[in-house]
Sequence to fold (417 residues):
Amino acid sequence: MKPKHLFSAAVAVLLLAGCSNDTETVSPSGLVLDPTTLEIVKGETYTLRATVEPADAAYGQISWVSDAPEIASVDAEGTVTALAVGEATVTASVGSDISASCRVTVVGPAAESLTLNAAALTLTIGEQSQLTATPSPEDANLEGLAWSSSDSGVASVDGQGLVTAVAAGQATVRVAVGSIEASCVVTVVAPAQVGDYFYADGTWSTELAADKQCIGIVFAVGHSEYDASDYSSTGIGKAKCNGYVIALNDASTSYAMWGPKGQELGCYPKDEFGDPIQNGRENGQYNDWSGYLYSCLAKADADQNGGLSAGAAEGHPLFYYAMVAYADAVPAPGTTSGWFLPAISQLYQSLNVADRIASVEGGKKLASDWYGSSSEAAVDNPGPQDYFRYLMNMGTPSVSSDGKDGAWFYARSVLAF
Fold:
């Protein structure tokens, strides 16, 4: 029989051994995040789940940080808040050497509407035009945006909204994301020619169409190299136009003045340094085609004094008749620039289609009289602050200049298409 004290000692040893194992600390060996990639809509939140390995590891608090908190922030509990469209990396850490990351992509909210930069386009065969879709809200998610054409044989469109005119006719180009869409009506026509009849629907033809309302005659095709106008914000929907049309009748029934004497608007061609280029008698019929630009400058000036008007010089009466009065009487197609007062070279060039104007019932050639242009008399003495260019059509047409506040001139509107 063993002595009782030996048994007690053995039990004590075993108990001490057991206590030593119970107090041993298990250190973390890894950290796992779920998920490791996250796509989240702006304005929403999501709580990441962090798991320390092994499961019985002892550790303090998990720390969280975002490398782009302005895009996606994270709090002490691992809750991510999407603040702006973009990407961020959220990292969770235990201690100084154990971490795991999640790549967070913040996308915009669902689109509520789409708007195209043009509701209608008129293109010649072979011409291209870029359509751009703008969502509301501006940072809406456009993933899955799709373009289509109702008739790709007339007008095709690629995945970026580039429209190509294929054949004469009409097609509707649509852009859609989810159930939201916008559309643009594309009219494709054969290239215009000088002398073509131009109609109220924005089309043209070489032979006069009896079933359409003719509103003018094409007097030049293509965008003139001397035209500094930008037609992007007009119904043309692009910087350069396809050509120019002269109205069938005068815009004014009586003489009118250009504007205030002694005021210069910069309505003349300029060199690379911004200095005036002569647009006078010798070359006025060639180098000054920026009538739309000049008309916009005159309108902006008049708007500071109540707008374009027929009476006071501050209302720029010639521009009023060309841009307002004539537009009320003969509306311009929505696919054009709208009516404006021509620059001196445009006015002079339009004389080449005088017989075509007279071939339309009710059409009136530019009379043997004086017609005002939108051009200031560049580099003349005393200069553009006092004089503007006009066309003197007395037998042999010529370009001349006169005082801005002299009411001796008719207006004849033109438009770009």
User: Anything to note?
Assistant: The first strand starts at residue 30 and ends at 34. Confidence is low (pLDDT under 50) at residues 1-21. The longest helix spans residues 4-22. The radius of gyration is 37 Å.
